[in-house]
Design brief:
With 213 residues, this protein is mainly beta. It folds into two domains: 84 residues, no CATH class; 99 residues, no CATH class. Helices cover 12% and strands 37% of the residues. The chain has four helices and twelve strands, in the order ββαβββααββββββαβ. Strand 10 and strand 11 form a beta hairpin. The longest helix is centred in the middle third of the chain and has 8 residues. The N and C termini lie far apart (38 Å). 23% of the residues are buried.
Length: 213
């Protein structure tokens, strides 16, 4: 089974929903089922939910590729459904291993794999004092940035956030990635997988600017 924080496309209120049964997993995990892993099982499973706030019904697609839970879609478009029918699965750019969801919640670092990735990505815009619930903590944005390339295309949105205990993090939002909390610094060269887990580094050819959207 898995839990999802779903932003209702109708009323925009966030609610958490359980799906399926069995051992708890999240996006990026391998199914805890020897047969599924051995068979490298790939499938798309449909779920229906009703918003707990407004009652609007939504279609949720659980996507598993070769035994790995790789993504979730909500109310897929005709284009997305056609790609799925053709076997083109929406694989994310990054699945950081080595840290379980519980580890990430304790560290307050890493991917929040309980969001639908497309709902909290580069299009998700926050302003100072806006709140967001990530890795079981409520965070308040107090500085807003965007990372742009030489053609002014947005590579990422970055928000300096803090919780009620004044712990600070960078909330990094990118298309085709899970939302992620990083240490409040983007300096230094990343040379190991562990560095990548803890830090965000501005890509070559990009710059970071204050977001006044």
């Amino acid at each position: 089974m898995f839990n999802l924080k779903v932003i209702c496309p109708e009323c925009r209120i966030v609610n958490c929903y359980p799906f399926g049964s069995g051992d708890l997993i999240s996006i990026g995990d391998y199914i805890n089922n020897e047969e599924a892993i051995f068979m490298e099982k790939t499938y798309v499973r449909e779920h229906k939910i009703k918003c707990l706030s407004c009652g609007k019904e939504h279609k949720i697609l659980e996507i598993v590729n070769k035994g790995q839970f790789v993504n979730v879609l909500i109310n897929p478009s005709k284009k997305e459904e056609k790609l799925l029918d053709e076997g083109n699965l929406p694989i994310l750019e990054e699945y950081v291993g080595g840290y379980s969801l519980e580890d990430r919640k304790k560290l307050l670092l890493g991917n929040d794999s309980e969001f639908i990735p497309s709902q909290v990505s580069g299009d998700y815009i926050m302003k100072p004092k806006d709140l967001i619930y990530v890795l079981d903590e409520m965070w308040e944005a107090f500085e807003c940035y965007k990372v742009i390339d030489c053609l002014d295309r947005i590579h990422a949105r970055i928000y300096k956030v803090k919780n009620k205990r004044d712990v600070e993090r960078l909330l990094v939002l990118r298309d085709n990635y899970m939302p992620s909390l990083k240490k409040p610094s983007w300096d230094g060269e990343i040379i190991t997988t562990e560095d990548c887990f803890f830090k965000y580094t501005i890509p070559a050819g990009c710059e970071i600017v204050m977001d006044l959207t």
